[in-house]
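Q: How would the structure tokens look for this protein?
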Amino acid sequence: MSRAYRIPCLIAAMTALSALPASAGDEVIAEMPYLDDRSTATDVIRSLYNAINRGEYLRAWSYFGEDGRPDFESFAAGYADTDLVELTTGKETAEGAAGTTYWTVPVAIETRHLDGTTEIFAGCYTLSQPNPAIQATPPFVPIGIREGSLAASDAPLDAAVPARC
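A: Here is the predicted structure in token form.
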């Protein structure tokens, strides 16, 4: 094979290979836009599952407030066999107390595992934020998850969302 023929073939092969994702996870990330929205409690939950779906467990973990933050290694390991999570949310509710706002967000998730099996979980997240108008010293504290309580559900995803928390 002549040198003039080998170089275009090599370039074509390298171009074709560079277009392929390195793994299935890279394919999901390329198709799923990055979402980091902390403007409402529901948006924080959406951002949490966006990070999980993209395999960005440190970012997912960061949505938990100091008071509710789980151990990072255990948190990340809990998603080791997760391929994708579909989220459905209900109506968030809010109440204020002593300079802090608390929200509850009813959710249902359908988790697809790497082996193709799925599970549905439903429950509530509780989030909080000190009143931004009275936060006088750094660091700024955004809305953060205080706790999540989800349990297995036999209902379809849309029907599994609790009416309220």
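The two ends are 71 Å apart (CA to CA).

The helical segments are 3-19, 24-31, 41-53, 57-62, 72-77, 157-160.

Upvote if useful.
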